[in-house]
Amino acid sequence: MGDENTILTEAEARHLLRRTGFGPTRRELDNSGYIGSTRGAAADDLLDFKPKKFKPSGREFDRSHDKWIKFMTKTRHPIQSKLVLFWHDHFSTAISTVQDVKLMATQIKLLYTNSKGHFKDLVKAINKDTAMMEFLDTVRNRKQVPNENYARELQELFTLGVTDFAGNKNYTQEDIVQISRAFTGWDYEKAAQPFLNENRHDFIEDFPERGPKVIFKGAHGFPPGGADFTSSGEGAAEIDVVTDILFQHTDTDGKNTVARRTAARLIEYFAHPDLVTPSLVDAVVADSDFDTNWDIGGLCRAIFVRDEFYATAAPAPFGSGTLKSVKWPIDFTVSTLRMLKIKLRGRDKIVNGGTFRPIRDHLQNMGQLLLDPPSVFGWDWESAWLSSSTLLARYNLARDIVAAREGGKRFRPETLMDLSLTDPGQIADAVSDVLGISNQLTSSERQALIDYLTDSGLNASLDLFDDEIRNTKLHGLFALVMQSPAYQVH
User: Fold this and answer.
1) N or C: which end of the chain has fewer CB within 10 A?
2) Spatial contact of 100 and 132, defined as CB atoms under 8 Å apart
3) How far lies 333's CA from each of 19, 79, 282, 410, in Å?
């Protein structure tokens, strides 16, 4: 059994950087210092970044989307963006509903600012985020007929989950009804500043028939009379008190519900859904004291030093029990752009080859447009990312990248590997290393690459300085590796 003092191998160091970032490139791997370091030291270094308050601003959705892509391809701390992508899915909010790019950009800035900070503070900030207020109808929540949308999703998706590990419900319809009262009257000014319009807020004296504002009566660690969220008075303070109460909620096992669910989701994201068990969840919560300090970075560290996390780094061949996670389209795309040093062309960020499509069109075809998740539940993960059409879209991106032959935005393998190599096996290994899957290919897959290079053994060596060979065989080899099953997972 390993722990935070376990020394990282090269494959494990690459795995840590791959799961928590985009890539990495060979240079990033070598410069990280993680090979031969301990799990704990590597995790500490990885998480020791000053949050960049990035905001994908722009008047149009396309510009905002592309600005975010560019930031992720250039960032020195990919883990911050990887965390933000998780929170973007967790607090799912879509431009197609919000219809305001500025509000969406402000929310992304909020996620970047708080990506590894205090989880309770993040939830409280999301409660007042103007894009979220539009998306889940807080701005349409009035005292006469309270709107229950946000109250429901605050519990179901953002904090508690519908049921606990024992399958028991974490809240009731009455809890939704009562919490919705706390959010009545919230709105925002033109400058996107949230405020409470008390004329539209539900006060008990105006609706005595609705009873006191209490939730979780005699359940989840609370007394028979429930938890009163007007303890600091009615009005603006209610939504913060509601959040404080949610973070005190306990499940059937007497464990903190928010801590368990958040830990479970981060294990799913950084490792694999099949690893989520009560014992592992409780271990990482206990190791990080997440149920008391709510420190997201500390919880991530507890995950990154576990044997279970590194078990997903298994090399090929992959058995039936191998836990490989399917790369999100954005991960597949940004990792590829970073590792191959691809520069997109022009205002529309076009891949300079093949079909010459904007990168957002490739992403849309793969099933993931940033800033526009399909529903409040976010995107479906793992095998849901893969279908005949979305796989074809991944293959098409690989094809277009290696087809970029002209100008300063061309694909340049000479900057990635040694072109003096002539042995087909060494060339296949070098390309696999550039793309970070040198130990992820089976012997038969590696041989298939060699057969491609040699025309099934007819050519014993290759001259990569020959333009025709480089533009056909070498470029084609990069495409084949990017299209391989091993490159779709990590």
Assistant:
1) N
2) no
3) 14, 16, 34, 17
Task: Kindly state the DSSP code that residue 118 receives in the 8-state scheme.
Answer: B
pTM: 0.97
Phi/psi of residue 31, each to 5°? -80, -15
Task: Work out the pLDDT band at 320, boundaries 50, 70, 90.
Answer: low
- State the pLDDT confidence band at 439, using cuts at 50, 70 and 90: confident
Q: At 181, which amino acid appears?
A: R
Mean pLDDT of the chain: 96
Q: How far apart are CA 130 and CA 289, in angstroms?
A: 31
pLDDT digits (tens, 9 = 90+) for 25-53: 999 999 999 999 999 999 999 999 999 99
Tokens 């020195």 correspond to: 76
- CA 455, distance to chain mean position in Å, is 41
Output the CA–CA distances (angstroms, integers) from residue 21 to 9, 338, 360, 394, 437, in the order listed. Answer: 18, 11, 20, 19, 15
Is residue 346 a contact partner of residue 391, using CB atoms and an 8 Å limit? no
As given in the structure block, the two tokens for residue 448 are 């298939």
73 φ/ψ sector (left φ>0, alpha ψ -120 to 50, else beta):
alpha
What are phi and psi for residue 375, nearest 5 degrees?
-165, 180
Chain mean position to CA 105:
17
Q: Where are the domains of the chain?
A: 10-48+255-311, 76-244, 413-488
Angle in degrees, 0-180, between the axes of helices 278-288 and 296-304, rounded to the nearest 10: 120
d(C-alpha 77, C-alpha 112), whole Å: 11
Q: Are 252 and 242 in contact (CB under 8 A)?
A: no
**226's tokens:** 């429930």
Inter-residue contact 395 to 403 (CB < 8 Å): no
**Percentage of the chain modeled with pLDDT above 90:** 93
SS3 463: coil
Q: Which two tokens stand for residue 370?
A: 């940033």
For residue 349, the one-letter residue type is K
Go through 377-401 and write b for each residue having 16 or more CB atoms within 10 A of its CB, e for each that does not.
ebbeeeeebbeeebeebbebbbbbb
Report which secondary-structure segment, H or E, holds 181. Answer: helix 173-182
Structure tokens at 295: 């420190």
pLDDT-based confidence at residue 190 (cuts at 50, 70, 90): confident
Nearest Cα neighbor of 266 from 319, 208, 309, 213 is 309
* Residue listed under structure tokens 């044997």: 307
The CA distances from residue 362 to 365, 384, 436, 480, in Å, are: 5, 17, 22, 18
The helix-helix angle for 424-434 and 443-454 (nearest 10°) equals 120
Residue length, the chain?
490
- How much is the pLDDT for 438? 87
H-type helices in 247-341, by residue range?
257-270, 278-288, 290-293, 296-304, 307-311, 329-339
As beta bridge partners, residue 7 has 38
